[in-house]
Write a structure and sequence with these properties.
Low-confidence stretches: none
CATH class of the largest domain: Alpha Beta
CATH architecture of the largest domain: Alpha-Beta Barrel
Order of helices and strands: EEHEHHEHHEHEEHEEHEHHEHEHHHH
Largest sheet: 8 strands, parallel, barrel
Bound molecules: D-xylulose, cobalt (II) ion
Number of strands: 12
Number of domains: 2
Strand order of the largest sheet: 3-4-5-6-8-10-11-12
Mean pLDDT: 97
Amino acid sequence: MTVYFHDIPAINYQGSSATTDFAYRHYDPERVVLGKRLEDHLRFAVAWWHGFAWPGGDPFGGQTFQRPWFGDTMDHARLKADAAFELFGVLGQPYFCFHDADIRPEGEDFAENTARLDEITDYIGTKMEATGTKLLWGTANLFSHRRYMAGAATNPDPDVFAFAAATVKTCLDATKKLGGENYVLWGGREGYETLLNTDLRRERQQAGRFLQMAVDYAHKIGFKGAILIEPKPQEPTKHQYDFDVATVYGFLKDFGLEKEVKVNIEQGHAILAGHSFEHEIALAAALGIFGSIDMNRNDYQSGWDTDQFPNSVPEVALAYLEILRAGGFTTGGTNFDAKLRRQSLDPEDLVLAHVGAMDICARGLIAAAEILEDGRLDASRNTRYAPWDKSDLLGLDLESIAARVRADGINPSPRSGQQERLENLVNRFV
Ligand code: XUL
Ligand code: CO
């Protein structure tokens, strides 16, 4: 049954000679790059919240979108699921991601929320089986409802902690039921507006214990996927505890979870934290906690988390370069945590936003693979560090090093970092 995208053809790869907007010009799922199909490298996912739940509001104006599935009944929820699977089919998307609140209407209480989640995930499960679309990750929305205005795990009210913990249990159950390959925790309101009313030490402890409980429960039910924290420095709170990859790693070490939990890194969040996307990916890989990515872009003038679809091949290529250097995705993938601009009202806008983003990512990944196959970039980096390969310095102490510097007359002669030369090299591929 078609519900929404019925005039739009299924999108397929037609190459750069395509004459229609409704074609992939670069994303050929079957193309083999570095020994793997593009579809298996990129592992694209549609985000249910932006695609189907977001009404098109901004801080100064409300809903602009009029979707037939907007409403708070289970019939609306099923219609929304029908539309979502129709879009996955049009795009040929292998994966999707959801929050509980995206797929079911809010109930009167926890019991009703759980019953509705069970019912709609049964419905979604049947559609997944029929279409072969898979779940990249599930998550709980612990930030929209007013009960969470002062945080979920970090709330001053233990009843809110309890409601949030119970909700995470149901969302882990739902994610496992649907064969989810990851479970994400984004601490949207786990932070503060002002330190004047905030006991930071206590809130951190609550967040750490909450995460331990989630990990324990995932083990208990035999959830095979990865548990991922999604860092973000601020917005909606003034300061968020999961600020960036480095902060999250310190937090995981503190609570003994650095082998249990990885990160889901979002482009826009990295920028908000004052980093590049590739910095956050490279750091996570170096720390052994790289999990997955939320692909999008921010508006570079407004300084907001505008969640736009990616649009720059050079930017995306540098991110995929770090992902490929780290060995590629395992459980993770490329989730488009991106939404339309609020004037983009038509069904085809949602389709074309994903088509463009998938082509951009395909070009980025292909460019990154070509850089690695070319070999000169990494050869140059290896040469830069080559003297370390035969050095025993790190096993010594200051005294013996001082003796050696004196005895051998060590007197370093600086070498060029060749940055412009390497930038020129990379630009030949992107
Ligand atoms: C918010 C954000 C979330 C998470 C999932 O900035 O990125 O959508 O990805 O809760
Ligand atoms: Co995100």
